[in-house]
Write a structure and sequence with these properties.
This protein is α/β, with parallel strands linked by helices. It has 6 domains: 35-59, no CATH class; 67-162, 3-Layer(aba) Sandwich (Rossmann fold), CATH 3.40.50; 170-322, Rossmann fold, CATH 3.40.50.720; 326-428, Rossmann fold, CATH 3.40.50; 438-569, 3-Layer(aba) Sandwich (Rossmann fold); 582-725, Rossmann fold (3-Layer(aba) Sandwich). Helices cover 42% and strands 13% of the residues. The chain has 30 helices and 21 strands. It has a 6-stranded mixed β-sheet with strand order 7-6-5-8-9-10. Helix 14 crosses helix 17, helix 17 (392-406) crosses helix 18 (417-428) and helix 22 (506-520) crosses helix 23.
Length: 760
């Protein structure tokens, strides 16, 4: 526990510079509709905008359909309790509120506006929010000091029929409750029996205590302390919010209260809990020291006196960070999607249970990467999911939405929760739309997929994920002892049930040698050469497995340059009759998918090759559910400016016109003309302008540069490059591919083996 995580350190200047880079601040507003033509402007504003105005006047709920209301949250503060800095005023809180808005967008695709109310009068703040409330689908209150935060929240719940959520209270409460559920599970304690001491009586402490009790903790088992000590019945200097948690007790100090306690929850100040107090706690104590920036006790000090404690803090440089980011974006996501009237206790409990459950599951690659390559496992140092767990977006909103529907606060019903979870995943990763469709298909067929470099950690992680997600049956090529060593290195049981094959299988070795020799003996291959390749080259072995029906598909590469893998592959297999081998990448950005070819095989394709690439690309486009519209790209558009370097593109255009193709095509054209509808008015004779979804590149360098620019600068998601035209369902992962990339290629290979008839 005492081992601290590695974190980035920064100076004050770096923090300030970050906020001034490019546009000042952290948020901007962009249009969700095209505004490129006169007609667009007429529909977006006058006169077209009058139509939804009239509809909303007749039916107010129509605002959810015709405006951004249903996906818009206001982050509101008066700056009276900013982080750990105190009351610095409304304007000073704006960087924090902008940050909150950014997090809403980044993690849950919720649009958010920060609003800073310059007032210390609770009633004035309430009236301000009440008067603007109809603009938003929900209100997130932030950094408002107690007791005003309680008063403001409660009153707004009475006045408005949209979710009102004070994150300092309820966000903290939900995450802490999730941590408590798992800590109790690990320490083998019953929530109904545990004795809890809460040090701190502010907004977050009271909210945590309320949710603890709503989750099963008994009132008589909780003692709350403030700066003056235990809050007991009869104490005169406590307000109504504190007095709700007063106990009939003779205990007066924190030291007295914590003796024999099972759980300590600190939401107070640094160094409030001493080593002596920790010593006095019950067996297997649970210590949540959540004061920021410095906890009530440092985890390493706990370690000095107890080896049975579970410790959580509010800091990112220790295990078990109680981080509200795990909660608020996803809770609002679920509430907004069912158009909830409020966020009630049942929805909060559902969120806490969903978070707790997720921490117990095998973590995905994104979490491993965030942990520096280590695989965190459910236990004393991993009781809360990582903020980088991509499953949060689908798990928590679904739980919240279900609870809202069950408790009658949802205006909109979600009929299919599983389908809703898939839609949630696609919100942050548009490529998931394609991959989920593929994965849904291959789960039914359970294809056998070879992972050729089975000893490589990334390949191995992808194979494990392929099996765990029930996408098919992975087969690893490698030495068994080495594979098991790597399994251990990535945090898995060495007896993990996964098939491993190698050239030690003499029967298979003889079979594959005979296959290769028979196939290539008239091309100069000797039998001993075939045997040598089978024995020593995993690409060869895997290819022979697929060719001989011992596997359905293969993914290879990832450990060497793509060209090197292709060279090996093309020694033992070839293109399908009438086709050429090339690379095709699917680029997904802002809900739009385009296919780009050739992205990894032909340096300078001829006109004939461009035509073949186009024809084959349309076949793949249809497999993925697209109606292909092909644009032959160049630096020129319809002959202007002319260049000898792109002569082959114009020749390809003339050649394809002689073919009897069943898709629309045009060129040569620049990429903006192919993709931007604005150019339709300039080139009305072309059906492709502005509509292209298959882009045929003039050369490999332009294709590679374009894909990497789109990925790096535009944030596009890439699937591929896929290997098209080969006579076997094999995919080659580029060098430095992530486990997720390899997993996608494995799924595509499995899908190809089913969707494409390789025998004809």
């Amino acid at each position: 526990m005492a081992k601290k995580s590695k974190i980035d350190h920064y100076t004050d200047k770096e923090a300030l510079d970050f906020h001034t880079q490019g546009k000042s601040g952290k948020i901007e507003i962009i249009s969700s509709k095209p505004l490129t033509t006169k007609r667009d402007l007429s529909l977006a504003y006058s006169p077209g905008v009058a139509v939804p105005v009239v509809e909303i006047s007749k039916k107010p709920d129509a605002a959810y359909d015709y405006t951004s209301k249903g996906n818009l949250v206001a982050v509101i503060s008066n700056g009276s309790a900013i982080l750990g800095l105190g009351n610095l005023g409304a304007l000073a809180s704006k960087p924090v509120m902008e940050g909150k808005s950014v997090l809403f967008k980044r993690f849950a695709d919720i649009d958010s506006i920060d609003i800073e109310v310059d007032s210390s009068d609770a009633n004035e703040i309430i009236n301000t929010i009440k008067n603007i409330g109809n603009t938003f689908g929900g209100i997130n209150l932030e950094d408002i000091a107690a007791p005003d935060c309680f008063i403001i929240e409660q009153k707004l719940k009475e006045l408005l029929d949209i979710p009102i959520f004070h994150d300092d209270q309820h966000g903290t409460a939900i995450i802490t409750t999730a941590a408590l559920i798992n800590a109790l599970d690990i320490s083998k304690k019953n929530i109904k029996d545990v004795k809890i001491v809460v040090n701190g009586a502010g907004a977050s402490a009271i909210a945590c205590t309320n949710l603890f009790k709503h989750s099963g903790v008994k009132h008589e088992n909780v003692i709350m302390c403030d700066r003056k000590g235990v809050i007991y019945k009869g104490r005169e200097d406590v307000d109504q919010f504190k007095s709700a948690h007063a106990r009939e007790t003779k205990l007066r100090t924190l030291a007295e209260a914590v003796k024999g306690a099972d759980v300590f929850l600190g939401l107070s100040a640094k160094d409030m809990l001493t080593k002596e107090m920790v010593k006095s706690m019950a067996k297997n104590p649970i210590i949540f020291a959540c004061a920021n920036p410095d906890p009530e006790i440092k985890p390493e000090l706990v370690d000095e006196v107890r080896d049975d404690a579970i410790v959580a803090t509010g800091r990112s440089d220790y295990p078990n960070q109680v981080n509200n980011l795990i909660g608020f974006p996803y809770i609002f996501r679920g509430a907004l999607d069912v158009r909830a009237k409020e966020i009630n206790e049942e929805m909060k409990v559902a969120a806490a249970n969903a978070i707790a459950k997720l921490a117990r599951e095998e973590v995905p690659d994104e979490v491993i990467a965030a942990y520096g390559g280590e695989r965190p496992r459910y236990g004393k140092e991993y009781i809360i999911p990582s903020t980088f767990d991509p499953r949060l977006i689908s798990v928590i909103p679904a739980a919240v939405a279900e609870a809202a529907m069950k408790t009658g606060v949802a205006r909109k019903k979600i009929e299919d929760i599983e389908k809703y979870k898939e839609e949630l995943s696609r919100r942050l990763d548009p490529s998931m739309n394609i991959m989920q469709s593929i994965n849904s298909q291959i789960r039914k067929s359970q294809k056998r997929v070879v992972f050729a470099e089975g000893e490589d950690p990334n390949i191995l992680k992808a194979a494990v994920a392929f099996k765990n997600r029930k996408l098919g049956i992975p087969i690893l090529i490698g030495k068994e002892e080495r594979v098991k060593e790597q399994l251990k290195n990535i945090g898995l049981d060495t007896n993990f049930d996964i098939q491993i094959v190698s050239s030690k299988d003499n029967k298979k070795r003889e079979k594959y040698t005979n296959y290769l020799y028979k196939k290539f003996q008239r091309s100069g291959m000797l039998e001993r050469e075939a045997d040598h390749m089978v024995r020593n080259d995993r690409v060869t072995w895997g290819t022979c497995m697929v060719a001989n029906g011992d596997a359905d598909a293969m993914v290879t590469g990832g450990t060497r340059h793509h060209a090197a893998t292709m060279e090996k592959l093309l020694k033992v297999t070839e293109a399908r009759p009438g086709e050429i081998v090339f690379g095709l990448s699917l680029m997904v950005s802002r809900g739009r998918t385009v296919l780009i070819a050739d992205t990894n095989v032909h340096d300078n394709p001829t006109a004939e090759q461009l035509v073949q690439i186009a024809i084959s690309s349309t076949r793949i486009a249809r497999l993925f559910g697209f109606d292909p519209k092909v644009a032959f790209l160049s630096h020129s558009t319809f002959g202007k400016p002319t260049s000898e370097r792109t002569k082959h593109v114009r020749e390809a255009m003339e050649l394809i016109k002689t073919k009897n193709v069943d898709f629309e095509f045009d060129g040569e054209m620049q990429p903006d003309v192919a993709l931007n509808p604005e150019y339709k008015e300039i080139y009305p004779f072309s059906k492709i302008v502005g509509n292209a979804n298959v882009l045929i590149m003039p050369a490999l360098h332009s294709a590679s540069i374009s894909v990497k620019l789109m990925k790096t600068l535009a944030g596009a998601r890439v699937i591929g490059p896929l290997l098209i035209g080969l006579n076997l369902p094999i995919e080659v992962a580029p060098l430095r591919s992530s486990p997720s990339d390899i997993l996608n290629l494995a799924s595509v290979a499995a899908y190809s083996s089913e969707a494409i008839d390789y025998k004809n």
